[in-house]
Amino acid sequence: MPESFNTIECSGISPENKTSISRRSFMGLAAVVAAVAIATSDWHAPSTAFATPSEDKRLEADAVRRRLDEWEALLNQYSNDYYAALAEYDQAITDLDAAAKHYEETVINQDRIQTQLGQRVRYMYKDGQLTFLNVIFGSHTFYDFTANWDFFNLLNRRDADLIAEANRARDNAEQALASLKIKEQIAVQKLAEAEEIRRNAVTIVNSYRAELEKLEDEVRQLIEEERLAEEERLRQEWEALSNQRPSNPGTNVEYQDEIARIIVEAAYSRLGCPYVWAASGPNAFDCSGLTSWCYRQAGLSIPRGGNAQYFDAPMRLAVVDAKPGDILFKPGHVGLYIGGGKFIHAPNPSTVVKITEMAGYGWHGASRWQY
């Protein structure tokens, strides 16, 4: 029984909506994944898993990327701490300026009170033995002045309360100013420490970024070398198979529109699914895994490997004679023709199942399995 492909979570579209083909968000950091994934057209079903030099280098890059992610998170935290310390420092400066201004106001207020009381002395003692000069010049400070004033009991209770209030205001302002100076010094120290931590984190993050970029360049170079080596291996394999088999099997397979429609609709439903080497669906594919899965939806069982899908087909034909649902072949890759000069395929790990124009793609031939 064919699998149900209408409920699978890929960003497939219907054949009636061919112009809008969306890439899936499953890729995440797609550029990074593309740089470090295996980009060769591995299209045969493997018997065992194996590690390539690019995969080893990719694992090394992944380890660096994890450390980079950790340090970028720390850098974000350290930056928040720095800006919090900066805000605390700014507030300390603001509070210190306000306290200094308030202290100056209390000093001015004391001077004003001293002047007023001095005028009273002048009027009260202008004809007596105690002169204004005895009180004024006998006092070296404002506190001496008020002590002398109390000593001689020259003020009423209201004047005494006014002096006490002025003294308390100045003392409180002086204490507040001293406390805020200490807070300002602490804020300066915390700001310097936060800045140093953040600066060190920036240095480490930049170092990891440079290391990751270098590793990704090496991965891309290894992928290209492996791709060229795989293309050469597949070319030699294809030449060997071509020499062993006739160029045309000589069988005329009847084309069936209904089967072709099911196959093409199945391919459309897989648009946006990721390429995963040796995957046969329903949510991830390599190139021959996609074609074999689409055929299963029409109730047809075809070989899993790309070479066999072409060379073992009951009918092989020229690319120009391909119809929707036929399999397109070239050494190292297969795709599914959907008509209108386009095909659907799973190209490589750097991208997803997608529609591509036929022009310039270099297909060697096509095969038909409808029977």
Q: How do the strands and helices of this protein lay out in sequence?
A:
Layout: H1 30-36, H2 53-124, H3 132-136, H4 142-151, H5 157-244, H6 257-269, H7 287-297, H8 306-311, E1 315-317, E2 327-330, E3 333-339, E4 342-345, E5 354-357, E6 365-368
Our count of helices gives 8
Q: How does the helix and strand content classify structurally? A: alpha+beta
Q: Could you state the order of secondary-structure elements as H and E?
A: HHHHHHHHEEEEEE
CATH third-level topology of the largest domain: Helix Hairpins
Strands of the largest sheet, in order across it?
Answer: 1-6-2-3-4-5
The oligomeric state of the chains shown is: single chain
Instruction: Please tell me what the overall shape is.
Output: rod-shaped
Q: What is the CA–CA distance across the termini?
A: 16 Å
What does this structure look like?
It is a single chain. About 9% of the residues have low confidence. A six-stranded antiparallel beta sheet has the order 1-6-2-3-4-5. The chain folds into two domains: 145 residues, Helix Hairpins (Orthogonal Bundle), CATH 1.10.287; 123 residues, endopeptidase fold (from Nostoc punctiforme) (Alpha-Beta Complex). Helix 2 packs antiparallel against helix 5. The protein starts with 29 loop residues before the first helix and ends with a strand. With 371 residues, the protein is α+β, with helices and mostly antiparallel strands. It has eight helices and six strands; from the N terminus they run H-H-H-H-H-H-H-H-E-E-E-E-E-E. A hairpin with a 2-residue loop joins strand 2 and strand 3. The protein is rod-shaped.
